[in-house]
Amino acid sequence: MAVLGLIAGSGPLPFEVAQAARERGLQVAIAAIEDNTDPAIEGCADGAFTWLNAGQLGALIAFLKQAGAGEVILAGAVSKANLLRDPSRLKPDARALALLASLRARGDDALLRAVAGELESEGMLVVESTRHLGERMTRAGDLCGGPLDPALRADLALGMRLIESLGAHDVGQACVVRQGTVLAVEALEGTDRMVRRSAEFGAGAVLVKAAKPDQDMRFDVPVIGPGTIEVARECQLRAIGLEAGRTLVLEQKRTLALAEAAGVAVVGLARPARSAPTPARSAPTDGEQRA
Q1: What pTM was computed for the model?
Q2: Three-state SS for 121?
Q3: Are residues 122 and 171 in the same domain?
Q4: Which among 8, 149, 174, 272 could bridge 186 via Cys, Cβ 3.0 to 4.6 Å?
């Protein structure tokens, strides 16, 4: 039986990946990350299981190789917040230290790509976290609720444009907009805290989640689930816009039913077309009138 290695971070995504992989006849070996992963994930492993510190790259590679993992998926987040509060929680081994020393940039994307490169140098293929979750990907159009009025659709479109522009700076994948005003942009705190932070400015806003323009779909794919809907209900959001084809709705049937009951519309949005760069204007000649 083929073995899938699952590096499980926080949130519900690792559970969905493990379930979908088992449904496809794969054995799942799981490496859980201390201070991040829900302990219940151990029940999803029908292969090897271990707990590791986020800095134990050498131990992670050894575990996956011993488990016989041919393919590896990274699912769920590894929080930086605890590490910023207490850097001693990260206990990098020799392989992790060598990797960190080799990096020019240490943003999330650069670090995750580097870790994937280390795994692949050992003969394991790092695949998209959505590989077995095709039916959970967001489709274009109104998924529940609605119809939305033009003002709300304009807010959703503004949110998509904002995420498009911020993605190049490795900044969050979500924002909250109301009446043409950006109330909050996701940073280190994550989506739920961002939404709660925005709620002080009143009800009726929209949440938009989208992948970064050059998103590596092997990791950090934007997701919503039942927990997101509960926060949306609590903060009186009117709608949630998700980039079609590049975001996930976990526990999809339940999540959309909860949204419908809460009066929160969920919409699959197309990514805005990138406009062509404006040609540089040459300096005016002596005969041209200057402004």
Answers
A1: 0.83
A2: helix
A3: no
A4: 174
SS3 174: strand
Which pLDDT band holds residue 167 (cuts at 50, 70, 90)?
A: confident
Q: Is the peptide bond before 92 cis (omega within 30 degrees of 0)?
A: no
- Rounded distance between C-alpha atoms, residue 248 and residue 266, angstroms: 12
Residue 271's pLDDT band, with cuts at 50, 70 and 90, is: confident
> β-strand 141-144 against 223-224: which pairing, if any?
unpaired
Domain residues for the domain of 222 are 137-269
148 and 247 in a single domain? The answer is yes
| Domain count of the fold of the chain | 2
Cα 271 from Cα 80, distance rounded (Å) = 28
Query: What is the reported pLDDT for 272?
Result: 72
Q: What share of the chain is helix, strand, coil (3-state, %, to 5)?
A: 40, 20, 40
Q: Give the orientation angle of helix 252-262 with respect to helix 226-234, to 10 degrees.
A: 10
DSSP-derived letter for residue 48 is -
